[in-house]
Amino acid sequence: MSRSAARVAGLVGLGLALAGGPVAGRPPPLSPGERPAAGSTEAELWYGMDQAERALRDLPHVERDAALNAYLQEVLCRVASAHCDDLRLYVVTNPEFNASMAPNGATLVFTGALLRLRSDDELAALLGHEFAHYRQRHSLQQWQASKRSGAALGTFGVATLGAGVGLVGGVAQLAGAAGLSGFSREHEREADALGFEFAAAQGYMPGAGLALWERLAREEAAAIGRRHHPVFASHPATAERVDALRRWTETASAEASPAGPPQLPPPEIRRTRYQAAIEPFLDRWLAEELNRRRYAASIQMIGELYAEAPAAWRGRTAHYLGEAYRLRRGDGDAARAAALQAEAIQAPDAPPAAFREHGYARRAAGDDAGARDALARYLQLAPDAPDRAFVERDLASLMP
């Protein structure tokens, strides 16, 4: 075993020890190309998942952009290695942070998760975690436990819908059976440890998962009342997860082999690659984030994205951060929103709506000339805007 492989195996051993160690009677990890034995409980579960996946393919919630899907599948295949041919990835239009891998290999990644990632490395960390659930057959274990307790719910769809994440049809069934609301904390800890191994063994930055979960912890803390979203209900406490990832990252950095694992492009290239993959969807996903109406959490999340944004994203991130402040309506939020929209309209990527909001902010400040210029620019950039009649009326009222 290479030094790199031994280092990673040691880290996983530590993670499994923290999770309580192996449990007698567990099924062995799934082998590449393996299918469940006919007539088994696992075959029953897979049958339901295959049906749900067929239904999923026809849903409008699935993002079908070929370039985005090919990019995500490439990273998934690198992390899953020999299991690549067993996995199919679907991007689901949903602003919540979540990803899952069903027992039959159907992998769901929500657009809300993609919006919160920063690089190939963080994507690999997320997919590595979900792949660990799949390879370790965690869904089968939860399914068996549910059947023994008499609490089985078909393909877990009812449990998932009850979690309040607004999923439908095949998405609900696949996500539910993949453990959105079902995995035990022991399974989550094991998936954290193994997912760390799978990503690091392929050369991805060991600290990527830590960076991601530190941001998620800040977003969680910013939420009004600090109410935990249902997706975190069965997971280890965020602080516990962050602490474990920090220990593994520090150990990996201290024991890194000079030869290293398989070669990848430099970290900055992996970051710009990720940005290029999601750039066409940034405006829509940010708008969907605001539709959640969790403005404190959105301000935290979009604020960090705005602070780190490349120049090509500056106008859009400033605009949507300004919108989050405007919609929250807290003390000082109107002034913050106005300043951000004033910044947004100076950027080449400013959305048309930034000019509209800047115009109304100038009107509120008594600057009728500035308001006229901004609202006229909005109508020029968005000639088919659904609110055109209302803006034209307001623009007419500002004429000298």
Keywords:
four-stranded mixed β-sheet; elongated; mainly alpha; 400 residues; 19 helices; 4% strand
Short structural summary:
The chain is 61% helix and 4% strand. It is built from 19 helices and four strands.
Largest sheet features: 4 strands, mixed
Shape: elongated
How many strands?
Answer: 4
Total tally of structural domains: 2
Placed side by side, the strands forming the largest sheet appear as 1-2-4-3
Strand content range? under 5%
Question: Percent helix among the residues?
Answer: 55-70%
Q: How would you classify the helix and strand content by structural class?
A: mainly alpha
Give the averaged pLDDT, no decimals.
85
**Rg (C-alpha, Å):** 23 Å
Individual helix count: 19
In terms of per-residue confidence, which ranges show pLDDT below 50 for 5 or more consecutive residues?
1-24, 151-166, 230-235
What's the layout of helices and strands?
Layout lengths: L2 H16 L22 H16 L5 E2 L2 H15 L7 E5 L6 E3 L4 E5 H6 L3 H16 L2 H12 L7 H6 L6 H9 L7 H17 L6 H15 L15 H17 L12 H12 L3 H9 L4 H14 L5 H15 L4 H12 L7 H13 L3 H14 L6 H10 L3
Parallel strand pairs: 2-4
Antiparallel strand pairs: 1-2, 3-4
Helix pairs in contact: 1-9, 1-11, 2-8, 3-5, 5-9, 5-10, 10-11, 10-14, 13-15, 14-15, 15-16, 16-17, 17-18, 18-19
Structural summary, described in words:
With 400 residues, this protein is mainly alpha-helical. The chain has two domains: 3-254, no CATH class; 293-397, Tetratricopeptide repeat domain (Serine Threonine Protein Phosphatase 5, Tetratricopeptide repeat, Alpha Horseshoe), CATH 1.25.40.10. 61% of the residues lie in helices and 4% in strands. It has 19 helices and four strands. It has a four-stranded mixed β-sheet with strand order 1-2-4-3, with helices on both faces. A hairpin with a 4-residue loop joins strand 3 (99-101) and strand 4 (106-110). Helix 15 packs antiparallel against helix 16 (333-344). The N and C termini lie far apart (80 Å). 44% of the residues are buried.
